[in-house]
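Thread: Integral membrane protein, structure

OP (GT): Posting the sequence first so everyone is looking at the same thing. Length is 443 residues per the record. Can we get the structure tokens written out before standup tomorrow? I want them in the notebook alongside the other entries.
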Amino acid sequence: MIADGAGVSEDPIDTILWMHILIQTLAWGILFPTGMVLGIVRSRWHVPVQIVATGLAVGGYFLGHAHKGRQFSANAHSSFASWLMLMMIVQGSLGGYLKLHLERGYQGKIRKYVVMAHGLTGKALPIAAWVQMLLGGIASLGFCRGDHLGQCLAHFIMGSAFIAYGIILTILLLVGQAWLRRTGRSQEFFDSLVIAAWGCVNTFTEHRWGQAWAHNDIQHTTMGVIWWCAGLVGVWLSRKRDGRPKRNIIPAIVILLTGYAMSAHPQSLMISTMIHSIFGYTLMGAGLVRIIEISFVLKDKATLSEDGTDPNSFQYLTPFLLYASGFLFMGATEEQMQLLDAKGVDHVSYILILYSISFLMFLFTNMLIHVYAVGAQSKSIKLDSESGQRNGHVRLPNGHPQENGHIVRDAEEFELHGLTSDDDEEGAGDTYPLVAKEGRRTN
């Protein structure tokens, strides 16, 4: 029986619901992202992994409707589940259709639109799965209802944004330098642009206009103001006088100042104050480390190595601290803090748990990037053998060979474009990832 105004009953979570949680976490959180990367590099394991993930997801979906024990009021997790399953079915159906190679008549005309729809759905699926897993955690505890909704949205959206920023920085660090060079922009140009846009949104949405200003409203609004002000400066400083890209530390300063503001954010509970303080210090650390990296490790260069594939160990710090900042902020909502305080959990233990989750997320991201990089390299070696090169070398314009291990891997390929059939790429018969194309351009 669910009490009036509550989101869940007092019953414990039963075995079936625990199975639902574990199976869906395995399917959506591990297997589908792995299958996505395997599809990008045309691995023969792509289809088996996706089939297993789909089977687990379908089984887990029905388990979620068959449990006893804890009962739940109407919630976003339950409503969004059907849409997520529909996205999975559409994505799989489009992929199956493309594999049939139906290109005669009208099917040849609509094929490019099917390819586009397949790619867009595939790119949206991991993001939708992340949202659904967050909604599942919220629903399991009956949180984020009534007056708590706005605060929950702020924590989970901003926390997810920090994690996404960390993932993007990891991809650009390990496989994205070729893409950055082709854009003719520095990384700080894109960082500053996003910061300025986000700041504009925060400036006009953090206060309920027409009502009295609260202390937190002032802090959040001024934080938005400094974001768009600093973002505009970062955009301006991201180019040299001759138009070439230039590094700058403005985004890092914004991260540092945001961390300072959040570390001093007033809270009602001591544990909440401590969690927000550590979150702020972690974010400040990310900004400070980024300043040191750009100014003293890289000395305003894009990379240390010529091809950008051998980063300094210090460069991993900023992305990881952003992962940790995201999880700390998502784990610091009012209701979570009240629950921990009631259970007698100290802030040190909780922070260590959140940092442990951050390490696992950082590990998994690096593993997926490694799978992509190794798979793309193997395709490059295959291309070299078919084009008359030996021992996996690519011939440069000056006649000297270049090792495939030093071919710059391209983050632009780190998307679901590769999940389409081989002949759906630009150029008939071109079945190799963009990293291979990058290598061919040097011939």
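GT: Both are above now. Quick notes for whoever picks this up: The mean pLDDT is 84. Residues 347-386 form the longest helix (40 residues).
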